[in-house]
Write a structure and sequence with these properties.
The complex is a heterodimer of chains A (358) and B (548). With 358 residues, chain A is mainly alpha-helical. Helix content of chain A is 75%, strand content 2%. Chain A has one domain. In chain A, helix 2 packs antiparallel against helix 10 and helix 3 runs antiparallel to helix 5. Chain A starts with a helix and ends with a helix. The mean pLDDT of chain A is 87. Chain B has three domains: 116 residues, no CATH class; 86 residues; 214 residues, no CATH class. Chain B is mainly alpha-helical and 548 residues long. Chain B contains 21 helices and seven strands. The longest helix of chain B is centred in the middle third of the chain and has 51 residues. In chain B, the strands form two sheets. In chain B, strands 4-3-2-1-5 form a five-stranded antiparallel β-sheet, with no helix packed on it. In chain B, helix 12 crosses helix 13. In chain B, strand 1 and strand 2 form a beta hairpin. Chain B is 67% helix and 5% strand. The chains are: A mainly alpha (358), B mainly alpha (548). The interface between A and B is large, with 42 and 44 residues.
C-alpha cells in the first residue's frame, strides 16, 4: 500500500516537473522566468535534503547549511566572473579594480578552470564541515549547543563575507555574469537546460538520500537521533557517523548552491545571514522532518508561497511565515507530510465511533 | 624679578593712553560704519578697523564678514549660527562688548529675523577683511571655529598677532578651545624662545596642557632641533611620555567599553539563561522583548511630550524603566501561555517556534513604528565624566553598568533569598521531583518567563541610551547572548555574569588589535576551543544526573 502510494507520488512529481512544465513553456503558456524560478526552488530542495539527513534523521540541528550553500554559489560565481573578465580583456573583476587591488588574490587563481571550480566547490565545504564537525562532535556538543554554535559560526562567516578586504565582493556580492561554459546565461534554452539539470540532480540526490536512509548506515543515524548514548554503548562510533552525515549534508548544500548561482545570476552574503539559515531549517520542519519527501515538498512549497505572497501582499509575508512556523511546531510535528496521517487518523477514529454507535 | 615687574608696569602705563586712543577711534569708525554719511566713509571705516586690529572690534568685523550684521533699536547685533527655537535666534551685542542679549527675566532673548533690520555691507567692503579673517574667527561664538582659528595660528611669530591671541585666550570659556589656544600660544613662544630655560618651560607647559596635537608638536620641534640639542632631546622625551600616558588611558577606555558591552550582554543573557535552565526553552524571541522594551521607552517619551505636554524633561526615562519591564514581561507571559507552554523540554522545537514569533513581532513593530526611531537621551545622562583630558566616561554607559549591576543583585536576591527562587532552582534541577514535592512547576515557569522577558525589556530600555530603536534590533544581540548562555553554563547566574563580561571584554580588546569583524571570529574560535574542555559551560552541574 505504502510503496504504491510512493510510486504514484514520484510519477506525479516527475510528470509534472519534467514533462508538464517544460511542455507548458514550449507551448508558450509559461514564461521562461517561471521555469527558471522553479529551477531555483529545486536547488533549495537539494539543500533541504541535506538538512533532512542531518536534522531529521540524525537529530543534529545544524544552522550552517546556508553557509555551505553560499560556499558552493560563491565558487561558481568566482569562475563565471573570471571567465567574463578574461573575455572582456581585463585582468581583474570590476569590483577589485574599484577596491584598488592590482593582482588577483591567490584563492581566485584556481577558479579560472571550470573543472577545478567544481572540484573546489565540493572540496571546500566538505573540508569546512569536516573540521567543524571534528571539533564539535569530539567535544560532544549536541542539541541546542550545536545549534547555537553553528549559528554563531554562520554569523561570523557572514560578517567576513560582508567585508571588502576579503575580496569576495562585500555587501554587493558577486553578480553580472554572462555565460557558462560558453553558453549565454540570458538565452532561454540555457535556462531550460539549467532547470532540467537541477531537476535531474534533485532526483538523483533524492535517490542517494533514499538509499542512505534505508541502508544500515541510515538506521544507525536514526538510532543516534533516538538515543545517542545507547548507540555508543553498543560500540558504534557515534562521532564518525555524525561526522560522515555532516559532510554529506554540507556537500548537498554546496551542490544546491552551485546550481542556484547560474539561475539567479547573483550571490550576496544575505543568503547566509541568520534569517536565511533559520529559514532553510524551516523548509524541512514545515515539510516534515525525518521524511525525505517532506524536505523536498517543504522547500518547494515555502518558496512558492514566498514568491506568491511577496507579490500579492508584501507586508504580511513575515506574518504568514511566522504563523506557519509556530503552528507547524505546535500542532503538526511531522509537517505537511504528517498532515495526511493526522486526517486519516481523525477520519478512521470518527468512522470507528460511528460504527460503534450503530 | 622686581625690575622686570617694574618694567612691565611702566610699559602698561605707557600703553594705556595709546590703547584708549585706539578705543576712541574704534568707536568713531564703528559709528561711521553703522550710519555712514556716504558709502566711501563706510569703506574707509572698515579699512581702518581692519588695519587697527583691535580685539574689541573683532566681533563686529566678523559679523560683517559672515553677513550677519543686524540692527535692533539702533544697536548692532548678530545671531547664532543655528536657530534656537522655531525660526528664532539668540542675539549678541557686538560693540563695545560682545554679550548675549537677555530679556527682563534674565532668559536669553529669542527673536525671529523679521524683527531685526539687516545692515547690508557691499562685497567690495567686505573683501577688505579677508586679510584678518583667521584672526576674526578667534572671537567667533562657535567654539569649534575658535579651536580651528587657534590651531591655524601656530606658525606665526608676529608680535601683534600674539597680542590678539592672548586677548582671545583671556576671554576663552570653552575648555577644548582653551586647550588648543594655549597650545598655539606656547608653540609660538617655544619657537621664539631665546634661552634653553624658556624653551624648556614652554615645553613643560605644552606637555601639561596636553592637547591632542601636543605629541606631534613636540616631535616636530625635536626634529627641527630649533634652539639646541638639549631642548630637542627634552621635547622628544616629553613626547614619548605623553604618548605612553595616552596609551594607558586608551587601555582604560577599552576596559570601560568592554565592561559596558559586557553588562548589556549580562542584562540580556540573564533572563535567557534562567528561562533556558528552568524550562529547556531556547527563546529566539528574547531579543524581540528587548525591542519591545525599547519601543515602550519610545512610546513613553511620546506620551510625555505630546499628551502630557512636558516638553523638556528627563522624567520620561525613569518612568520608562519600570514600564518597559512590565510591558515586555506581560507580553512574555502571554507568549508563554499561548506557545511556549506546549514546548517544555523540547529545546529545538522551541527554537523554531520562537523564531516564528520573533518574525511576527518584528513585522508588527515595523508596521507600527516604521523603520527607524530614536529616543532622546535624557539631559541628565548626556555628556560624560571627564576623568582626565583624554579619558571621558559617558554617563549613559555608566548608567547601563550600574543598572545591570543592580539587576544582577536583584536576580541574585530573588533566586537565593526568596521562596520563589528556591522553587525556580529546584525546578531547574529536577522538574519531576519538584512536581512530586508539590511545586506548581507550570506556575513557576510562567513567573520565570515573565521575569526573564521583563529583564530583556529593561535591557532594551537601557540600549535606547546608546543606539537607535529599529524593529530588528533584537537580532543584533541574540546570537551573542546565546553564546554567553552557552559559555556560562545553562541556568547559572555566576556563569552568565562571568561569561557575559568576559565576552564583552574580549570583544573590545580584540577590536583594538584586529578589526571588529575579525575580533568576532576570533572570539568564536576561542569559544569553540573552550567548549572542548568545558562542554557544559564554565560551571557545569556535578554528579551523575548531569549526564544526559
Amino acid at each position: 500500500m505504502k510503496t504504491k502510494n510512493n510510486t504514484l507520488l514520484y510519477i506525479l512529481f516527475v510528470a509534472f516537473f519534467a514533462i508538464l512544465l517544460p511542455a507548458g513553456y514550449l507551448a508558450g503558456l509559461l514564461s521562461v522566468n517561471t521555469i527558471s524560478v522553479w529551477g531555483r526552488y529545486f536547488c533549495f530542495a537539494i539543500a533541504a535534503l541535506g538538512i533532512d539527513l542531518i536534522w531529521g534523521y540524525t537529530g543534529i540541528l545544524s544552522m550552517c547549511q546556508a553557509f555551505f550553500f553560499c560556499l558552493g554559489s560563491y565558487g561558481i560565481a568566482m569562475h563565471l566572473l573570471l571567465k567574463k573578465t578574461v573575455a572582456s580583456g581585463a585582468t581583474l573583476p570590476d569590483f577589485m579594480a574599484w577596491n584598488k587591488i592590482d593582482t588577483l588574490p591567490f584563492f581566485w587563481q584556481p577558479f579560472h578552470s571550470f573543472g577545478w571550480s567544481v572540484v573546489l566547490c565540493l572540496l571546500i565545504p566538505a573540508a569546512f564541515a569536516f573540521i567543524i564537525g571534528l571539533v564539535l562532535f569530539r567535544s560532544r556538543i549536541k542539541g541546542v549547543y550545536m545549534a547555537i554554535i553553528t549559528q554563531a559560526l554562520t554569523l561570523a562567516m557572514w560578517l567576513i563575507f560582508l567585508r571588502n578586504e576579503t575580496n569576495l565582493g562585500g555587501t554587493n556580492g558577486l553578480t553580472d555574469f554572462n555565460s557558462i561554459l560558453g553558453y549565454s546565461l540570458s538565452s532561454s534554452s540555457v535556462k531550460l537546460a539549467l532547470y532540467l539539470v537541477s531537476l535531474t540532480v534533485l532526483c538523483s540526490a533524492y535517490y542517494c538520500c533514499y538509499r542512505i536512509t534505508h541502508s544500515k548506515f541510515g538506521k544507525v543515524l536514526q538510532a543516534i537521533r533516538d538515543s545517542e548514548s545507547r548507540v555508543s554503548y553498543t560500540a558504534y562510533k557515534v562521532e564518525d557517523y555524525k561526522l560522515a552525515v555532516f559532510v554529506v549534508a554540507a556537500l548537498l548544500a554546496a551542490v544546491g548552491g552551485m546550481l542556484y548561482l547560474p539561475q539567479t545570476g547573483i550571490i550576496t552574503p544575505g543568503r547566509m545571514d541568520v534569517k536565511a539559515s533559520v529559514e532553510m531549517v524551516m523548509w524541512v520542519a514545515l515539510g516534515g522532518r525525518g521524511n525525505l519527501k517532506g524536505a523536498v515538498i517543504g522547500a518547494l512549497l515555502v518558496n512558492f508561497l514566498y514568491s506568491i505572497c511577496t507579490s500579492l501582499f508584501p507586508d504580511s509575508w513575515l506574518f504568514i511565515l511566522g504563523f506557519l512556523f509556530v503552528i507547524t511546531v505546535l500542532y503538526f510535528d511531522k509537517g505537511f507530510m504528517g498532515l495526511g496521517d493526522i486526517i486519516r487518523q481523525k477520519f478512521s477514529a470518527t468512522r470507528l465511533k460511528t460504527s460503534q454507535t450503530h | 624679578m622686581n625690575t622686570s615687574l617694574l618694567r612691565m608696569l611702566m610699559c602698561c602705563l605707557l600703553l594705556l593712553p595709546l590703547f584708549s586712543a585706539g578705543q576712541d577711534s574704534a568707536s568713531i569708525y564703528t559709528a561711521q560704519l553703522l550710519q555712514p554719511p556716504a558709502d566711501s566713509v563706510r569703506t574707509q571705516a572698515i579699512g581702518r578697523l581692519a588695519a587697527l586690529r583691535i580685539p574689541a572690534t573683532f566681533p563686529l568685523l566678523m559679523a560683517i564678514n559672515d553677513k550677519k550684521l543686524y540692527l535692533l533699536d539702533q544697536q548692532a547685533v548678530t545671531i547664532d549660527s543655528h536657530p534656537s527655537g522655531e525660526g528664532t535666534y539668540r542675539l549678541y551685542t557686538l560693540y563695545p562688548d560682545n554679550t548675549l542679549l537677555t530679556n527682563s527675566s534674565g532668559q536669553p532673548l529669542l527673536l525671529p529675523l523679521s524683527a531685526l533690520k539687516t545692515v547690508d555691507i557691499p562685497r567690495a567692503d567686505r573683501l577688505q577683511l579677508a586679510g584678518i579673517a583667521p584672526l576674526l574667527n578667534l572671537f567667533s561664538n562657535d567654539p569649534q571655529k575658535r579651536s580651528l582659528a587657534y590651531s591655524q595660528l601656530k606658525h606665526t611669530s608676529d608680535s601683534a598677532t600674539l597680542r590678539i591671541l592672548k586677548a582671545a585666550l583671556a576671554k576663552e570659556s570653552n575648555a577644548d578651545a582653551l586647550r588648543t589656544g594655549k597650545d598655539a600660544l606656547y608653540a609660538i613662544q617655544l619657537y621664539n624662545a631665546s634661552t634653553t630655560t624658556i624653551a624648556k618651560a614652554n615645553i613643560d607647559s605644552i606637555a601639561d596642557n596636553w592637547s591632542d596635537n601636543a605629541p606631534v608638536l613636540l616631535r616636530d620641534y625635536a626634529k627641527s632641533g630649533f634652539l639646541n640639542q638639549e631642548t630637542a632631546q627634552y621635547a622628544a622625551a616629553k613626547a614619548v611620555g605623553l604618548e605612553k600616558r595616552y596609551d594607558n588611558l586608551q587601555r582604560v577606555q577599552h576596559f570601560f567599553s568592554g565592561l559596558s558591552l559586557g553588562s548589556i550582554l549580562v542584562l540580556i543573557a540573564l533572563g535567557l539563561s534562567i528561562v533556558y535552565g528552568l524550562a529547556g526553552i531556547i527563546n529566539m524571541a528574547h531579543g524581540e522583548f528587548m525591542m519591545i522594551g525599547a519601543y515602550t521607552t519610545y512610546c513613553t517619551q511620546i506620551i510625555f511630550t505630546k499628551a502630557l505636554g512636558v516638553p523638556q524633561t528627563d522624567l520620561f526615562f525613569f518612568f520608562a524603566l519600570p514600564f518597559s519591564f512590565l510591558v515586555a514581561g506581560s507580553l512574555g507571559w502571554v507568549l508563554e501561555r499561548l506557545v511556549i507552554r506546549h514546548l517544555y523540554a523540547k529545546p529545538l522545537e522551541s527554537l523554531l517556534a520562537t523564531w516564528g514569533v520573533s518574525l511576527i513581532l518584528i513585522q508588527t513593530a515595523r508596521l507600527l513604528f516604521g523603520d527607524l526611531t530614536a529616543v532622546k537621551t535624557p539631559q541628565l545622562l548626556a555628556g560624560g565624566w571627564q576623568v582626565s583630558p583624554h579619558l571621558t566616561l559617558p554617563y549613559n554607559r555608566l548608567f547601563i553598568i550600574a543598572l545591570s549591576m543592580l539587576m544582577v543583585l536583584f536576580t541574585y536576591l530573588m533566586l537565593y533569598r526568596t521562596r520563589l527562587g528556591l522553587q525556580i532552582r529546584s525546578v531547574t534541577q529536577n522538574r519531576q521531583m519538584s512536581a512530586c514535592l508539590g511545586i506548581e512547576t507550570r506556575r513557576v515557569a510562567s513567573i520565570t518567563f515573565f521575569i526573564g522577558s521583563g529583564l530583556a525589556g529593561l535591557a532594551g530600555c537601557a540600549i535606547t541610551l546608546i543606539g537607535n530603536v529599529v524593529p530588528d534590533m533584537g537580532q543584533t544581540y541574540i546570537v551573542d547572548s546565546f553564546l554567553v548562555v552557552v559559555t556560562g553554563g545553562v541556568g547559572k547566574l555566576a556563569g552568565t555574569i562571568l561569561s557575559g563580561l568576559g565576552i564583552g571584554f574580549f570583544t573590545k580588546i580584540s577590536e583594538s588589535f584586529f578589526q571588529a569583524v575579525y575580533g568576532k571570529v576570533f572570539i568564536l574560535v576561542f569559544i569553540m576551543l573552550f567548549m572542548q574542555y568545558k562542554p557544559k559551560g564554565l560551571f557545569p552541574d556535578k554528579g551523575r544526573i548531569a549526564e544526559d
